[in-house]
Amino acid sequence: MRYDIRGIGGRCLALVIASGLWISAPLCGQETPFTSSNLPIVVIETGGTTIPDEPKVPVRLGIIRGTADRNFLTDPFTDYDGNVGIELRGNSSQVYDQKQYLFETQDPQGEGVDVPLMEFPKEEDWILYAPFVDKSLMRNALVYETARQLGRYASRTRFCELVIDGDYKGVYVFLEQIKRDKNRVNISKLEAETDSGDELTGGYIIAIDHSGKDTDLGFPGAFDSLGYYVYWHIFPKSKDITWPQRWYIEDFIEAFETAIQAPDFADPQGGYRAYLDVASFVDYILINEWANNVDGFVASLYLHKDRDSKGGKLVAGPVWDFNIAFGNADYSDGTSTTGWRSHYGRVPFWWRRLLADSSFVSELASRWTELRASTLSSASLEHRIDSLVTLLDEAQSRHFNRWQLLGTYVWPNGYVGETWAEEIDYLKSWMRDRMRWMDEHIASISWPPDSIISSVSETIPGMDYAISVWPFPAGSEVTLALHFPAAMNGIVIVRDVLGREVRRCVVEAPDARVQHVGMQLHGLPNGMYHAAMHVGDVVVASTRILIRR
Fold first, then answer.
1. What confidence tens digit (pLDDT) does each residue in 100-127 have?
2. What is the pTM of this model?
3. Which DSSP string corresponds to 244-302?
4. Quick one: angle between helices 420-441 and 358-372, nearest 10?
5. Is 20 exposed, middle or buried (0-12, 13-18, 19+ CB in 10 A)?
6. pLDDT tens across 381-405, in order?
């Protein structure tokens, strides 16, 4: 089947936020003729099947990527033509009109099969990332390429245009999913029967994120009774990991956290350096600080560990998810080109402990100076961006005709340009200002060396008010963790996407400790909600609640 593609007519609605409240606004509906592209073309034929959040459903997928400079919808499928199982991807991003997809290449019997797509090493799990909220279209691709130039693995990317059942869906980024193999996160494979010896010590991939990547059974930080961060099992998956393997990696993380919170945490032999691949944490911090990534130290945070015989230390990365970085978030100082993201209150405490070690800060400063003369030089970055502009110039016009985003606020845009060129100029100028500030202030990233944290539930340095929720996504109930700087009362108000109050609770804080409050969500439909913590008439902290049953 081939199409003369035109975008769906009429008016589509996407959820956006203005002045802290979610509202609906028309964002799509222009006819978009599409017959060819300088980018690869991905075609999905569902046969009338709706693609759900989960589970994966069978569809046909084809990729047109010829050797010439032009790909036509009438061309044969080249990279792939066959079965895949596909589902929607993401949490809060699912409210956007342009959906993201996770798919698995499959054999005729519906079993996963490794295939080399887009000239990437073979695998079975792939991502079609929708840059809906990132109107430059390139933030993720830019960072992942930069990380690879630093010598760190990051997902390979390929821009493409997507068609589903004759509907042109715009520009997408074809991504590798974070996986363990020799061409991606290159660590040892744990077998199901492994329960002792050197083989038990690796390899593991874990992540700190808003919710589990698999099914259940993440584990909290050893000193975190706030519920601020949970480690999730990525490899082996939660459903596959055995109890000896689970106990081993959880004990290793507890030993690391115990060492880094101790008074002698900076000791080269018995401190945190016995557990961490320090150079990887240096690069991870610099990449996320360079981008002022609001999620960089609290979510989409991957860590991995190989066997002790192969180094055995915890490695930071791969880096992931920069769509609301580089000034593209209007909350938590996301547009600011000054200040340190790693200093913010809700990050796991051990980031600050690293910055309390003068030797570690010295390594950060030296590495930053080195990178500014090479991979992160202004000239190198401008060239990288300009190359992507040349690549995307044709397709972006169709994309923004299909999705009427330019000149329109989409949560959480920190800047709204009237044209794509203005979005690119903002990205460039923001980046220049950020790097100039970092050049002048890199030494100020240090944290007071006397900030020993005996219990994260007692206090978190630099944090006055805070609110977090657990679990995310939530089902029929949620637990609110609220931090007050002193004894006082507060109110938590939950509003729906239209700003209507749906829940309210009064919180009495007899002291500065964290208060945990349960809230029932029965009767509320699935979707995104906004929880605001009020003291008097002032909103002092806020977060999101995603209900998904």
1. 999 999 999 999 999 999 999 999 999 9
2. 0.81
3. HHHHHHHHHHHHHHHHHHSTTTT-TTTSGGGTB-HHHHHHHHHHHHHTT-TTTTTSSEE
4. 130
5. middle
6. 999 999 999 999 999 999 999 999 9
